[in-house]
Each structure stands twice: as C-alpha cells, then as structure tokens.
C-alpha cells in the first residue's frame, strides 16, 4: 500500500512554525529586540513625563500675619500714676499706680508690675486695700463693668467670675489667652488684722477706645 502523503495544509503549518522559530532566534540575538523594547518603554513613560512637565497652577500667596498693635510704646515707671479705674456700680473712680508695694497701695490701686497693662492681651492685675480704695468692692459681682482709662485709651471689661482664694494663691496672676482684667483685695472685708483670703474679680475685655 502507498503511504498517505501529508496534506498541503499540514505542510504549510510546519513551514510557518520553522520560519517563526528561526525568526525568534534572529530577533533575540540582534539589536532589533533591544530597539523594540526601548521604544515600548518610551511610549509607556511619555504620558507620565508629560504630566510631570505640565505647568502647575500657582497657589495663592498667603497673607502676612497682622502684627498686634502696640498700645504702650513705653511702660510706666514704678510708683508712676498710669491711669484710673472707674467702677460704674459704685460710681467711683480710683487712681492706678504702677506697682503693688505699700507706697503705691497707700495712694490708690496698684498695678502688678509683672502683668500686662490694661487693654493688652493677657492678664492685667490690679490690687488695692479693702479698707481704703476697695472698701465696697464686695458689692461688685458677675456681670458688672470695670473701666480702665490709660494713656492708650479706654478699656471696658465685664466681670465673668468672682473668686474667693487663699491669701497665698498665685492663680490670680497666671497668664490668660485673651485680654483680662483681674482685680483683687483682701477678704473678708470686715476681718480685723491680716485677712486670710482674697476677693477676686475676673473680667473680660468688651470694648477698646483708642486715643
């Protein structure tokens, strides 16, 4: 019997396979493979490179911080009269002296020298004797006004809190995050001798009228 001859289709497939095999060997052993690989990487990286080189929208420039206004170019000297404290509830105006030594407290209300001046941000502390300038301070309480008048202007405060503390309590002079006026005197008001406590008014700044 005669053996069957391979069909033309089968012969064509074998020939194609041999050509592809030979072409693959040639492709991988010459510069053609390197060239095509490099071109493909270039096409992939091009969109990212374009995105990087694309001009970005400039951000709006930040506004410079506003400097806090200087109310007092020079601080008062110790013992110097620096203003007055007006208490509407008592219809009384009291002189304020810089310092809280006995020399200042004998003349009027003393301003604690290590605290800020009235109108400035932080805690401004005033003290006075209960048997002289602050004889009626116990009548002043929460919601009442305290008005400090100085060379910088008129500063109106509203009492937010009334405190009774020990005589050696130092919390009355601690810094505050906003403009505060702390007014303190000995307590009880009718006590004979060195009073063991302090009557404290803590007031927040309401308005400022600059000169």
Automatic annotation (TrEMBL):
Region of interest called Disordered, as start-end residue ranges on this chain: 51-70
Keyword Translocase: no
SUPFAM superfamilies: Sortase
GO molecular function annotations of the record: hydrolase activity
Alphabetized CDD domains for the sequence: Sortase_D_1
Pfam families (UniProt xref): Sortase (PF04203)
UniProt-recorded name of the protein: Class D sortase
Organism of this sequence: Peribacillus cavernae
Entry annotation: catalytic residues: 129, 186
UniProt entry keywords in alphabetical sequence: Hydrolase
NCBIfam families hit by this protein: class_D_sortase, sortase_fam
């Amino acid at each position: 019997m005669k053996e069957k001859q391979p069909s033309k289709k089968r012969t064509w497939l074998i020939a194609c396979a041999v050509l592809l095999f030979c072409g693959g060997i040639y492709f991988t052993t010459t510069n053609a493979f390197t060239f095509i690989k490099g071109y493909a990487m270039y096409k992939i990286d091009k969109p990212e490179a374009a995105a990087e080189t694309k001009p970005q929208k400039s951000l709006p420039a930040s506004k410079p911080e506003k400097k806090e206004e200087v109310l007092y170019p020079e601080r008062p000297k110790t013992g110097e009269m620096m203003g007055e404290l007006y208490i509407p509830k008592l219809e009384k105006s009291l002189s304020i002296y810089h310092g809280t030594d006995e020399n200042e407290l004998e003349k009027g209300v003393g301003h604690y020298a290590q605290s800020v001046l009235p109108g400035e941000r932080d805690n401004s502390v005033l003290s006075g004797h209960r048997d002289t300038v602050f004889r009626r301070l116990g009548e002043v309480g929460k919601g009442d006004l305290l008005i400090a008048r100085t060379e910088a202007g008129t500063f109106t405060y509203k009492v937010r809190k009334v405190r009774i503390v020990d005589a050696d309590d130092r919390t009355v002079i601690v810094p505050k995050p906003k403009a505060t006026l702390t007014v303190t005197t000995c307590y009880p008001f009718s006590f004979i001798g060195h009073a063991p406590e302090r009557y404290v008014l803590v007031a927040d700044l309401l308005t400022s009228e600059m000169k």
